[in-house]
Amino acid sequence: MNQNLDTFNHMESNVRYYIRSFPTVFNRARGAQIWGEDGKAYIDFFAGAGALNYGHNNPLLREKLVEYLESDGVVHGLDMATAAKENFLKAFEHIILQPRGMDYVLQFTGPTGANAVEAALKLARKVKQRTNIMSFTNGFHGVSTGALAVTGNSHFRQGAGIGLENVTFMPYDGYFGPEVDTIAYIDRMLSDPASGIDKPAAAIVEVVQGEGGVHVASTDWLLALEQLCRKHDMLLIVDEIQVGCGRTGRFFGFEESGISPDIVTMSKSLSGYGLPLAMVMLKPELDRWRPGEHNGTFRGNNLAFVTATHALENFWRSEGMNELIERKADLVRKWCRTLHGKRPELDVKLRGRGLICGIYLSDHNGLGSEKIGELHKKIVRRAFDNGLIVETAGAGDEVIKLLPPLLIDDNLLRQGLQILEDSIVAETRAVMDQRAPFPELMHT
Prior knowledge:
This protein is an alpha/beta fold. It folds into two domains: 3-58 and 319-441, Aspartate Aminotransferase, domain 1 (Alpha-Beta Complex), CATH 3.90.1150.10; 61-315, Type I PLP-dependent aspartate aminotransferase-like (Major domain) (Aspartate Aminotransferase, domain 2). Helix content is 38%, strand content 15%. It is built from 14 helices and 17 strands. The strands form four sheets. A seven-stranded mixed β-sheet has the order 4-12-11-10-7-5-6. A hairpin with a 2-residue loop joins strand 13 (348-353) and strand 14 (356-361). Helix 5 packs parallel to helix 11. The longest helix is centred in the C-terminal third of the chain and has 24 residues, at 410-433. The protein is globular. The relative contact order is 0.14.
């Protein structure tokens, strides 16, 4: 560990995680770059795990935030009416919901995505008067107890300390391979009174599984899942916490499929500035809460309302943001195709949508999934040493997950991809040089 981290090592719990992947003290950030105390600059393909879609310290949002603070605007207000909240509610309705023909009411929960998931699950059970929830393989929804119960990864589940109950896991799209229709499988299980499955109140799903390995659900699968929920009288909860706010190319990740979720959870980039803000969108007929029945001291965040409002007004009034994201996503796709053409022996593959991308090396050289995961972690470490912040994802670190800010400059995007390419080539060569005979991969 870098000696600059002595204070953190001495005072902070062993639970700290990202500091181990990125072992330096950061002190300044702007756009798609972040600097260490030693002055070294890093290109950020991590973006606060998806909380910084508009980059660090976006100047348009910072200006409005500073103005608000200097005017003695209300900072903390529980769930009382404030001008900042009113402006956000109006902007969200007029810029996001109405143009999309959507009708939802908004609930502000505690400040994290897990808080929003807890509220969504609680409401679904209250509405349907049933306890079971259906979740999916490789799903990730947070690490508070209820959210953790619908999270598949055993690494996180083992930290619960209690049994995680009232959840049935089902196979996500493609879990058994492209030839298996998992919706048909789920339908059979739910339809069979002898399957042992208690009828769920809701299904919770990510349209792109970020933490789970950048698995993408097809439009057909999502439409079939929606029909399945209607058939079996279940609510459909879509978790937009990481892939919402434009990450997949449109404001909502589910937009492209045309589904109409009953409940939507949002957080991460909702504030636009990295400020904590979490929200549940629910169809009006599901708003069965009694006043104060689900509360919290920090539900809503007036500073976050200010930046969120201006993010909507500056970036989402037109189709321009969609086009910008698609153009940058195309740069990533072209880079991957070019790398595959230059070094086909590496068999580098890409999955994802928009600017959530999973880069991975196939197992055609017989390394095994565990070794592939170790290789990906080495690639990420080398990339960090060379000035790129990027993380792995999936239970076995099976992908290198790219989450650059949506507004990243094209040249910085290319520079980051070049660092990643150089790291892939160097670490793969190092591994293969130790594993003779693979002459076609040696000294290329």
